[in-house]
Amino acid sequence: MNSIEVLRKYWKYESFRPLQEEIIRSVLDGRDTLALMPTGGGKSICFQVPGMVLDGICIVVTPLIALMKDQAENLRAKSIEAVAIFSGMTKREVDIALDNCIYGPIKFLYLSPERLASELVQERIRHMKVNLFAIDEAHCISQWGYDFRPSYLNLVILRELHPKVPFLALTATATSRVIDDIQAKLAFSGPNVMRKSFFRENVAYMAFNEEDKIGRTLRVIRKLGGSGIVYVRNRRETQEVARILAHEGVSAAYYHAGLDTLERARRQEAWKSNDVRVMVATNAFGMGIDKPDVRFVIHLDVPDSLEAYYQEAGRAGRDGKKAYAVLLHHQSDRLRLQKNLELGFPSIDFIKRIYQHLGNHYQLAYGAGEGLSLNFDVGDFCSRYKLDVMTALSALKFLERDGWIAVTETVYLPSRIKFEAGPQDLYKFQVEHAAYDSLIKVILRSHGGAFDHFIPIREHELARRVGRDLNTVVNMLNHLQKLEVLTYIARTDSPQIQFLRPRTDDKRLHIDSGFIRQRKRILSAQLDAVFGYLDGQVCRSTMLLAYFGEKHSAPCGVCDCCLAARKTVDLEDKLMAELTEVLADGPLTLEQLVLQLKSGDEKARLAFIQRRLDDGKLRINGSKYDLAR
């Protein structure tokens, strides 16, 4: 099938969105391609369609574990074979999944970038028939970007494994410098950038200096109607603001990474189906959510980069109808962001101390721990060693950048099992152990493929079907594992930390201080750009587009700055007409003139009169004012 036939068969769309077809054609021609598309522009289609058209497997690298799981599940729902490999899976699960990619019918393999550090994964990829490497969130590879992730620097290894396979790099936010850096870091064969303008004609960007942020938020929500998102900076605020909105009669829920996965999914679905009108959330909310009818996105706290702000604000108005992105700021926001910048760059000694705390926390001997993945509760870790959370998180990022550890987001992994006994041995076991017979039969009837790979199970459902309580079923599964009848892995719902190298002492623990200094300069410049946006008096959309390299865009006409400028022009026209009329019968004193003008307040009238004197349209004769002839 060609690309349009694949689109119609599997995605049920009749035609591509703007730029999608050009990107797909470039990929099918075997060209390395960098695609810049705004949030909600349909990036996944750009690699999924050519992945289906071409013979072999498409490897997709993304740092967003929840997104890769969703995309893999969505592809399987379309009868397209896809698997995802990320932190939290056991070595055996990874081994089986990679084998299926080499010998089975898998068309898409989703990988977190950390996985590419593994020689096992590299060697298996070498033996796959790869048709395309798709790099999502490609800005993460650039230290000049707002969300630099050191693990992305491993991606060039893919070029060495399959030199002739094209790369498709995708991002929604990238400055000109980041665009060049992405292509260099991925060793593009030649420059090839396809971009869709970042201009959103239906989105009105607003930024207001506001002390009473909650009051302004309520007025915006009531005035605009429809569903929306209110972004805040921490988990505590999500609950507080959602409670205030609910008290004021606004249907609201809160969302942050601290909620368990099933609860997050439930709240997200309630918002998407409009059972909840407003979601109050940290920036953990929104990735991969394609809700078209979001009428407003309100930021109660200022993001630390224009890239982050543009991406979050871009979740408004994906249906093409009028929507608003409202940023509320105050002097306290600037002080907080500047303080956070300082906290984000701890000393080398502090970073080394964090590393040793990690080794002690998990009781790792020196020389041990390479490749080990463990649950990681940052709150518990910081409490135990009396650490500031923000400074500790920053230290972890620099340890990650230098290749010592990898830290992943909260990830939900359901319980999984795989039969280790073959069908004949299992039947014999059932005959000899009648107490386990009903449980094994339920598993076999409910889950196909349990002899070949790990399958997800729900212990509550198994308990209901075999007529036992939950604890009994869990104990039975654990006992079956001890007897080597099956492997049982209980569910997890926590962040993961992986030790990429054996634990070492401080003398051998190299931390790149030059990189830290440079990174601080980059983030400081990004913060200056945010403050410039807040203080700017020209079109908000023009300021954002200029930041992303679109230098000559026309004013949007709908942001707060454009509306203020238009209001000023309208007031000038009204005052000029009134001035001509009141002076038609002769000169007036300043006091008489200000009283007889009707538009604007006294301050605006006085400023208008001064401007007319400056441009020569008014003259003073003695104590009276008259039109210049």
Description:
The chain is α/β, with parallel strands linked by helices. The chain folds into 5 domains: 3-195, Rossmann fold (3-Layer(aba) Sandwich), CATH 3.40.50.300; 203-329 and 523-547, Rossmann fold, CATH 3.40.50.300; 338-413 and 495-511, Winged helix-like DNA-binding domain superfamily/Winged helix DNA-binding domain (Arc Repressor Mutant, subunit A, Orthogonal Bundle); 415-490, Arc Repressor Mutant, subunit A; 560-627, Arc Repressor Mutant, subunit A. 45% of the residues lie in helices and 17% in strands. The chain is built from 25 helices and 22 strands. The strands form 5 sheets. A 7-stranded parallel sheet has the order 3-4-2-5-6-1-7, sandwiched between helices. Strands 8-13-12-9-11-10 form a 6-stranded parallel sheet, sandwiched between helices. It has a 3-stranded antiparallel sheet with strand order 14-19-15. Helix 13 (331-343) packs antiparallel against helix 21 (513-535). The radius of gyration is 30 Å and the shape is elongated. The N and C termini lie far apart (77 Å). The mean pLDDT is 91.
Strand order of the largest sheet: 3-4-2-5-6-1-7
| Strand count | 22
Please, how many domains? 5
Kindly provide the radius of gyration, computed on alpha-carbon positions and rounded to a whole number of angstroms: 30 Å
- Low-confidence parts: none
Supply the CATH architecture of the largest domain: 3-Layer(aba) Sandwich
**CATH top level of the largest domain?**
Alpha Beta
Largest sheet: 7 strands, parallel
CATH fold assignment of the largest domain: Rossmann fold
Task: Quickly give the structural class.
Answer: alpha/beta
> Helix amount, in percent?
40-55%
Strand content: 15-25%
Summed over residues and divided by their number, the pLDDT gives a mean of 91
N- to C-terminal distance: 77 Å
Q: What is the helix tally? A: 25
3D shape = elongated
